[in-house]
């Protein structure tokens, strides 16, 4: 009898533990693939010299955060204006390429993506480094809500 109670107790404990642990597990979905595709879309737009479409992958909000060696900018419009100033001549945007370093789904609607990037023009490197982006699914689309580019 004691052995049956112990077995029942262990079974119930295992079931409770499994339920608790599974409630903290992030569901596996297509989020990582969708974010990879979104970044590819952003890069394709950049490489066509289409800054407006490339910027469309950022969160159009005053809360969007951009961090670089020059400091921080807050707000979509501020970042967009910075890019417009830096790339008044679209032919100077160059060719953007990247290498994924780390990507993980951190919640149902958030993905953290780290990659090495560079922009080249006429075979010469204009700029590059490592970026970390937080992508969130807002209103049914994946957008960058913050980026640290170094």
Automatic annotation (TrEMBL):
Coiled coil: none
InterPro entries, per the entry: DUF4440, NTF2-like_dom_sf
Pfam families per the UniProt record, alphabetical: DUF4440
Gene3D superfamilies (alphabetical): 3.10.450.50
Superkingdom of this protein's organism: Bacteria
Domain DUF4440, residue spans: 38-144
Protein name: Nuclear transport factor 2 family protein
Organism listed in the record: Pontibacter populi
């Amino acid at each position: 009898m004691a052995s049956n109670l112990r077995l029942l107790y262990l079974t119930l404990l295992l079931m409770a533990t499994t339920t608790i642990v599974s409630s903290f597990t992030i569901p596996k979905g297509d989020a990582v693939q969708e974010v990879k595709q979104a970044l590819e879309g952003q890069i394709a737009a950049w490489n066509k010299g289409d800054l407006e479409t490339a910027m469309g992958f950022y969160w159009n909000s005053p809360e969007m955060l951009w961090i670089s060696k020059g400091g921080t900018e807050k707000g979509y419009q501020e970042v967009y204006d910075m890019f417009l100033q830096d790339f008044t001549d679209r032919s100077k945007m160059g060719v953007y390429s990247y290498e994924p370093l780390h990507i993980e789904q951190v919640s149902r609607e958030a993905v953290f993506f780290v990659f090495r990037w560079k922009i080249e023009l006429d075979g010469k490197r204009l700029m590059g480094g490592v970026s970390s982006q937080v992508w969130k699914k807002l209103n049914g689309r994946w957008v960058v809500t913050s980026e640290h580019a170094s």
